[in-house]
Automatic annotation (TrEMBL):
Taxonomic lineage from the root: Bacteria, Pseudomonadati, Pseudomonadota, Alphaproteobacteria, Hyphomicrobiales
Pfam family, one: BolA
GO-annotated biological processes: iron-sulfur cluster assembly
Protein name (database record): BolA family transcriptional regulator
Record-stated family: Belongs to the BolA/IbaG family.
């Protein structure tokens, strides 16, 4: 399983974000995904602002991030919260 640093590097290379925050929320869900071979990161929140999202609706943005992390999802990333925006758009964070 990829570390948050590897995921951050991938997102930076694909989206060239002006702002990117990764929050590993796995510890908040301890026991929720209780498998002996559970990956290190099971729950991740991504806050990203990138001009790549300009003109894309929310669903398209989520699909783009999910596609970028398809390998992690296949290998046990159980929950992914995505907060994606284009530059200049209001965010709650």
């Amino acid at each position: 399983m990829s570390s948050t640093a590897e995921i951050e590097n991938r997102l930076k290379s694909l989206f060239n974000p002006e702002r990117l925050v990764l929050m590993d929320e796995s510890a908040q869900h301890a026991g929720h995904y209780d498998e002996p071979d559970a990956p290190e990161i099971t729950h991740l929140r991504i806050r990203i602002v990138s001009d790549k999202f300009q003109g894309m609706n929310r669903l398209a943005r989520h699909r783009a991030v999910n596609e970028a992390l398809a390998g992690e999802i296949e290998n046990g990333l159980h929950a992914l919260a995505i907060e994606a925006a284009a530059p200049g758009e209001k965010t709650r964070w």
